[in-house]
Design goal:
Blueprint lengths: L1 H7 L6 E2 H8 L7 H15 L9 E4 L3 E4 L2 E5 L13 E3 L2 E5 L2 H4 L8 H11 L4 H17 L4 H17 L14 H7 L5 H20 L4 H13 L3 H14 L4 H13 L3 H18 L4 H21 L3 H14 L4 H13 L3 H15 L3 H8 L1
Parallel strand pairs: 4-6
Antiparallel strand pairs: 1-3, 2-3, 5-6
Helix pairs in contact: 5-6, 5-7, 6-7, 7-9, 7-10, 9-10, 10-11, 10-12, 11-12, 12-13, 13-14, 14-15, 14-16, 15-16, 16-17, 16-18
């Protein structure tokens, strides 16, 4: 209801995503999926088709606007049904700003479960991923049509097949890439195929209901890529970017697709754009970005180094270390560059500081032996 009132205060004008986040969730960090879910439920209440909207129009890369005429009305007596009076007739939405609207359910009953599931998913450990799966399942029990839960569960299932296909105590692939997993064939086992089939069913349903959710498109792309449909995956990732230009996950995944196709130089610009985008939106979603940004920065530095662009590689390593001073792969990479150009004292000083504050890193141990 708050979302509808916000849109109705400026009928015909675009209300940006940033304005909506600041107004509806001023003291809470929420993701794009939260807004997409709110828009989806509001459209469902209005019986509005996002492909041919009569009430709420999506403005690509910007936000939303109310395209129906708006007029005020006296407060209405609350109806006994759960959906309180939200009158829509002849293209005119009548806003009854009375006690009935104050009683409109503010959040989905599964919202707390989804928040915890998202937090767990982005920790990228076996235990946290299984926690996310259990919570997404609970959310879908509460609301089987919740597109955020469907997409979230699909992602977590893909991660299970990708990184933790074996029982606890068996081999894990925490730092693997999708390309590496496909190359080994472990996504072709009967168990992996069953897991990916379930993921595809979930995310396909979510995409049909919420085609303009960037998070849903990301989940769709990941699932399709895991099933070797790289063309479909690319289309989904590009759709996610068209919906939300700040979708750094789509940029990373497009880079990953280029690598899988054997075109690392085409992948590099995607990784660089992803890093810059994460830098710009970090304050909005720090829990999601923190596990990724330094790793992407190191990947970029290593690509420049492999291409002989050592000055650019050093710049990227130092950029990562300016934000994550104890990031071991960046320390190792920069120390190796310094040593290769003959500045061994500087390399050893860098390693010594890291060892004193965070313990020795693998690359620095090698340097110390040399």
């Amino acid at each position: 209801m708050d979302l509808l009132v916000l849109l109705a205060t400026s009928p015909g004008a675009v209300v940006t995503r940033e304005e909506i986040f600041a107004t509806l969730w001023p003291d809470t960090l929420v993701g794009e999926d939260t807004l997409a879910r709110a828009i989806s439920k509001l459209r469902k209440a209005l019986d509005d088709d996002p492909k041919a909207p009569r009430y709420i129009e999506t403005i690509s890369k910007r936000g939303y606007r109310l395209i129906a005429q708006v007029s005020a009305a006296p407060a209405l007596r609350p109806a006994p049904a759960r959906r309180w009076p939200l009158l829509a007739a002849g293209g005119v939405i009548v806003l009854a700003l009375g006690a009935a609207f104050l009683m409109w359910p503010r959040t989905s009953p599964s919202a707390p479960l989804l928040e915890r599931a998202e937090d767990a998913y982005f920790q990228y450990t076996r235990g946290d991923n299984e926690t996310a799966i259990a919570l997404y399942d609970q959310a879908l029990t509460a609301d089987p049509e919740d597109t955020a839960a469907q997409a979230g569960l699909a992602r977590a299932l893909v991660q299970r097949a990708l990184r933790w296909p074996n029982p606890p105590g068996g081999e894990e692939y925490t730092r693997t890439t999708l390309g590496e997993a496909l190359a080994t064939g472990r996504l072709e086992t009967a168990q992996a195929r069953a897991t990916l089939d379930r993921a595809l069913g979930l995310v396909t349903s979510a995409a049909q209901t919420a085609p303009n959710s960037a998070d849903v498109q990301l989940a769709l792309g990941l699932t399709l890529a895991a099933r070797r449909d790289l063309t479909g995956a690319e289309a989904a990732y590009r759709h996610a970017l068209a919906i939300d230009a700040s979708s750094w996950g789509a940029l990373i995944n497009l880079g990953d697709l280029a690598d899988m196709r054997g075109a690392p130089e085409q992948a590099l610009p995607f990784y660089e754009r992803a890093f810059e985008t994460m830098q710009r939106v970090y304050a909005r979603e720090p829990q999601r970005i923190r596990p990724w940004q330094a790793e992407v920065g190191v990947l970029i530095a290593a690509r420049h180094g492999a291409a002989g662009r050592t000055a650019e590689a050093e710049r990227w390593y130092r950029r990562v270390l300016s934000q994550s001073p104890m990031h071991s792969p960046s320390v190792d990479g920069l120390a190796a560059l310094l040593a290769a150009r003959g500045d061994v004292p500087a390399a050893r000083a860098l390693c010594a500081e890291h060892a004193e504050r965070a313990g020795p890193s693998p690359g620095c141990r090698t340097l110390a032996r040399d």
